[in-house]
Amino acid sequence: xxxxxxxxxxxxxxxxxxxxxxxxxxxxxxxxxxxxxxxxxxxxxxxxxxxxxxxxxxxxxxxxx
Length: 65
Description:
Blueprint: H1 38-64
């Protein structure tokens, strides 16, 4: 007696996909430009200015001792 749908055939080892490891050629599109959001720029400026003032304050304390 056979299974419903007919006899089951086991396919031979068949490669269904291949991996192509060749590099993709550049098509001359736009190059990536590192862009920072304005928020990060403002925060970095504030951080730098606060570091400068804290260093100046620390230097002033050392001189006043």
